[in-house]
């Protein structure tokens, strides 16, 4: 039976049910597919409230995207237009300006709400 997920025990049970359902061949628009969809929504809501994923700080986000995109510090300098300041920025000695935030958002596709955080 499907019910609300209000505590860790119910969360673990719902995850177990999801796992069991995913081990079967589910036909679209069947009782099992509806059950899987409802359980997934309940688990997602519980996780959003009780297990939120913290946002990375701006420097972590920049370094992570640079690594993903196989960028060098020189590439970052070209995006920002500052050759000497890139190391100050990456070390946290220099804060990001609004212009830098815009350029990083556009070039690296890092959400602005992450880039504007204090660090």
TrEMBL record:
<dbReference type="GO" id="GO:0006355">
    <property type="term" value="P:regulation of DNA-templated transcription"/>
</dbReference>
<protein>
    <submittedName>
        <fullName>Transcriptional regulator</fullName>
    </submittedName>
</protein>
<dbReference type="GO" id="GO:0001046">
    <property type="term" value="F:core promoter sequence-specific DNA binding"/>
</dbReference>
<dbReference type="InterPro" id="IPR010982">
    <property type="entry name" value="Lambda_DNA-bd_dom_sf"/>
</dbReference>
<dbReference type="InterPro" id="IPR001387">
    <property type="entry name" value="Cro/C1-type_HTH"/>
</dbReference>
<dbReference type="InterPro" id="IPR039060">
    <property type="entry name" value="Antitox_HigA"/>
</dbReference>
<feature type="domain" description="HTH cro/C1-type">
    <location>
        <begin position="62"/>
        <end position="115"/>
    </location>
</feature>
């Amino acid at each position: 039976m499907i019910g609300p997920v209000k505590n860790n025990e119910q969360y673990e049970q719902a995850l177990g049910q999801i796992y069991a359902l995913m081990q079967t061949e589910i036909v679209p628009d069947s009782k099992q597919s509806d059950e899987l969809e409802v359980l997934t929504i309940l688990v997602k809501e519980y996780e959003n409230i009780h297990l939120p994923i913290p946002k990375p700080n701006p420097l972590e986000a920049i370094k992570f995207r640079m690594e993903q995109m196989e960028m060098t510090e020189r590439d970052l300098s070209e995006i920002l237009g500052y050759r000497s300041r890139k190391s100050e920025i990456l070390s946290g000695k220099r804060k990001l300006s609004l212009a830098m935030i815009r350029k990083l958002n556009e070039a690296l596709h890092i959400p602005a709400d992450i880039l504007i955080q204090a660090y």
